[in-house]
Predict the structure.
Amino acid sequence: MLPPTDQQTPTAALLQAPEAQPLDLAIGDMNLLLEQHGYVIAVYPTGISPAHERRLHAIRSVLESDRIALLRTDLPPLGVAVLVRQLRQLSICDFSPGVVASAARLLAHYIHAGALLNSVARLDRVPVSLKSHAKSWVPGSQFAVLAGPNPQLIKIGPTAEPPAGPPFATQLLVAKGQLTSEWVQQTLAPAWGVQAIQECALPSGSARWWGTGKLVEFASFLPDISVIYQLVSSVRRENCHWCGMELIGDRCGFCSSPLAPPENRMLSPGVLSHGAPAPPRT
């Protein structure tokens, strides 16, 4: 979990894995969170263990609560941490819990998350060609891999261009693993034109997600909460036809029900965006 960006940004609660906490205690913790805050939005990466994911669903089932949103994302661990912090920022704005939860899919489009790796031999979450696999066995090889929003893989070399970056102003978060390299700070950051570079500790799940501990993970993000607020506000809001929660986009963040077809819902002024609108100008 990343530290708050300011005194107003709330902290987050860490939901423990099954091997770290008995089920009854986990249920008690979740119930306490619901009593204190009213709603819980749990964000977790696809790399989480199946047992941990089953634990989250079991807790929601036992509590029979429709106030718990379980959001699975394809972002790598550092990207997940950035997304969670942005949702924490939105949670104190004048958005309903449903809008905050469904905003996760929208904001993920604006997080360029990747890593510098010494090998892609065990990387199975980003498409890797057989040629790249073969090159990864050459001593000294390094690869720049972008997991999202558009997967890219480039073998680092004197003439290699960095992966295509965001076409809008961002800051860059960097977490160093066991790989000693300044390529991200000295090459990638200038190419992406980032406004600032911040360093943080490597997330505990990064080595498993990327298939190696010899890496430098990075994520670029929109740093200004006012821009994020405008971005979310620009998308038309609907009410979920299944659970009644407010949502943006095409799917409810709480019950995962898709937006009802146009012929089955009342239309209101505005334009519904199923994709990712351009971030507002600052």
Summary: The beta strands are 40-45, 68-73, 112-117, 143-148, 152-155, 171-176, 197-200, 215-221, 237-239, 246-248.
